[in-house]
Amino acid sequence: MNATVTAVSSNGVYSFTKPNRDSITLLEGLGVEGDVHAGVTVKHRSRVAQDPTQPNLRQVHLIHEELFAEVAASGFTVAPGQLGENITTRGIDLLGLPAGTLLRIGADAVLEVTGLRNPCVQIDAFQEGLLKQVVGRDETGRVVLKAGVMSVVRAGGVVRPGDTVEVRLPAEPHRPLERV
What we know:
Layout: E1 4-9, E2 20-21, E3 24-27, E4 31-32, H1 45-50, E5 60-64, H2 66-72, E6 87-90, E7 102-105, E8 109-116, H3 122-126, H4 130-134, E9 135-137, E10 143-145, E11 149-155, E12 157-159, E13 165-168
Parallel strand pairs: 5-6
Antiparallel strand pairs: 1-2, 1-6, 3-4, 3-12, 5-11, 7-8, 7-13, 8-11, 9-10
Organism: Streptomyces djakartensis
Domain MOSC: 18-168
Protein name: MOSC domain-containing protein
């Protein structure tokens, strides 16, 4: 299956969900144009409170559409943008990518995957019990975070639903994704 973008979302104000758009513009080194989380330094409130000078490794949030079907099997209804992601994909194992993976999206945009989204209690405020669906444990007892990956913009460009996503793995040895 070819990897594609199924939805794009942004919001200029702090809100858990982000409305879907016809397109978003990625700005090199900043994030999604007009999105509240765009910037060189951290924009997520909890991280700003810790240290507002930290680099923003969470400029663009991606979630795999397949997660929505997974949580639907447990009775939850989630649509693109509702978990705060900027780009919803299909056909790519985002959670299995190593840190430093480059994602070319559409004609020009390039994202570098920096780590896993750390799901927070706002997910349960959105739909009670959903947090347990996006944070689990594998067969060894290790915590598994399923709420998508975070990235930074290495090359800007316009991203639209239907755009292809090309994966370029970094040189080995690969580093597994950790929460950022």
